[in-house]
Design brief:
Elements (H helix, E strand, L loop, with lengths): L2 H61 L1 H7 L9 H15 L2 E12 L2 E13 L1 H12 L5 E12 L2 E11 L3
Antiparallel strand pairs: 1-2, 2-4, 3-4
């Protein structure tokens, strides 16, 4: 081989090695950018999903505002407990029975809505006492009757008691 051929071969080899190193560098750069792109794509997809959930929640909150307002009517406000007792006493007069509030307490427990616990003692004709119990079953509030007792006192006089839990507004 001549000197010119050796020089040409050396230069060509250097160009080849340089070009090959440039290709390897470009390949490594593209792979690292691909990884970053995939991470950004995943982050973007997660962000879009979160935005969709937030939009859905906002739409649901707006759409159910009237329903939630209407549901509030079924919960007794703590400030309205005296009016509630007065309404029960007026109901008893209408039914021809006498009623006495024997217990009145607010039950507060963590993780559960507060409840008004009331107990009423009722005296009168059997039909009036039973009608009073039926009216207590249908009070227009979220409520649970825990105890009902009915006793005959003698003759036409009957007595009874009812314990009721009424959920208070949050």
């Amino acid at each position: 081989m001549t000197k010119k051929t050796t020089t040409t071969l050396t230069v060509a080899t250097l160009y080849f090695v340089g070009f090959f190193l440039l290709l390897i560098s470009a390949y490594i750069t593209v792979r690292s950018q691909k990884t970053e792109t995939m991470q950004l794509r995943t982050t973007l997809a997660e962000q879009n999903a979160k935005e969709q959930v937030a939009n859905t929640v906002a739409i649901t909150v707006e759409a159910t505002a009237n329903d939630r307002a209407q549901l509030q009517n079924y919960f007794l406000a703590e400030k309205d407990t005296i009016n509630f007792i007065a309404d029960i006493e007026a109901l008893a007069k209408t039914l021809g029975v006498t009623v006495e509030t024997t217990s009145l307490d607010i039950i507060r427990r963590e993780g559960v809505q507060s409840q008004l616990k009331t107990s009423f003692a009722v005296t009168g004709a059997r039909s009036g006492v039973v009608s009073f119990f039926e009216a207590m079953e249908t009070v227009p509030y979220h409520s649970t009757i825990t105890t009902v007792r009915l006793n005959r006192e003698g003759g036409q006089v009957w007595s009874g008691s009812v314990d009721i839990l009424i959920t208070l507004q949050p």
